[in-house]
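Entry 12.
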Amino acid sequence: MLPNNVIEVKNVWKSFKTVQAVKGINLSIPKGKFIALLGPNGAGKTTLVEMIEGIQKPDRGEITIMGKKWKGNEDELHRILGLSLQENHFIEKLRVTETLRLFAGFFDLGMEKVEEIIKIVGLEEKRKSYVVNLSGGQKQRLAIGIALLNNPAILLLDEPTTGLDPNARREIWEILHSLKKKEETSMILTTHYMEEAEYLCDYIVIMDNGTILKEGTLQQLLEDDTSEKVVEFTAEKPLDSLDLSSQELPFTIHSGDSPGKGFISLKNFESELPLFMSYMKSRNNSLKHMECRRKTLDDLFVTLTGRKINE
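Predicted 3D structure (tokens):
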């Protein structure tokens, strides 16, 4: 009988010299679900995924895949995983079809499978192109195609759209979204793009400094604050003259990406907004613009860490 969870991570720790990259993480990945590991560079996402992939070994703790540890089950586990690493290096003077045939040979797969993958990742017009002539987005589609060759039960993608332009990123999203509809593959996706996690994944794990800050579905992550209203504003003067965590206010003022911009999260909009207005007036600062909107993952990350995810 197969376990309900295809991956179990139990109290896993990993350090590199003086850096503690992963600190006692526990995580369960259900069968057929798409999971996002969301966090900034240095959060520990890649290290965690590399341990799941068997590339790194935990200092402490245990990782099982389909109920099995890596030691003694390497061949079996390699055949059920599909990997796309953060950096992919191909033989530049091979054509797209030749590259896929090379990797297909590792699984005793023929040209029929290669053609199927070329269609899935939308590289029909580039089948005879040399890898060196592919764009960044096309190379990433090729990498995903290679990861899909063996019909993996588990797909592990490490920052698959980093550095791509918006159109190329959207093309990758559509490929992955089509896989999700089939409900045959479980996926772990590391990303620092909030919208990528929201669009593709059933469950989101927010990481920072080697730990899990919060996890759940998008609705679960934000439902603790469903009554909160987010107010974005632009002030006449920079916010550095304000006490952003003033005891006079029942909420914190978060600074934005320019001197006069910021936002606040209000649980009681009717009573707390006037307090904010009065506070700004008492500091001889007035508002040029104000807008109310729903809370997002970006806001949640700022609330949890005090900074934006891409800082």
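Annotation: The chain has two domains: 5-217, 226-294. The chain is about 30% helix and 25% strand.
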